[in-house]
Amino acid sequence: MAGSLAAMVRYGYDDDYWDKYAEQVRSTSLSDVSQAAKDYVHPDRLVWVVVGDREKIEEEVRSLEYGEVTFLDVDGNPITE
Fold it and tell me: Which of 13, 14, 65, 67 is deepest in the core (most CB within 10 A)?
């Protein structure tokens, strides 16, 4: 309950936001979702973050050919190979 109220305050939702929420979700069409994806999802700007044992996953990650592979340490600093 507290989380829902906090969201209402933070995002300026109307008092009846949660009362209408389920119906709004049910009334969302495939066309609405497709348009939102076109408006907000830009594959050319995606960044993938993969965490794991480098020796076990590096070859498979590179084989995906999603672009440049950069290694970072636990503090987010680039690791020079």
Answer: 13
Q: In whole angstroms, how far apart are CA 17 and each of 3, 21, 29, 33?
A: 14, 6, 19, 20
* Cβ atoms of residues 50 and 61 within 8 Å: yes
pLDDT at 46 over 80: yes
pLDDT (tens digit per residue) in 12-23: 999 999 999 999
What are the C-alpha distances in Å from 6 to residues 13, 14, 23? Answer: 10, 12, 21
CB 79 within 8 A of CB 73: yes
At which residue do the structure tokens 């979702």 appear? 33
Amino acid at residue number 71: F
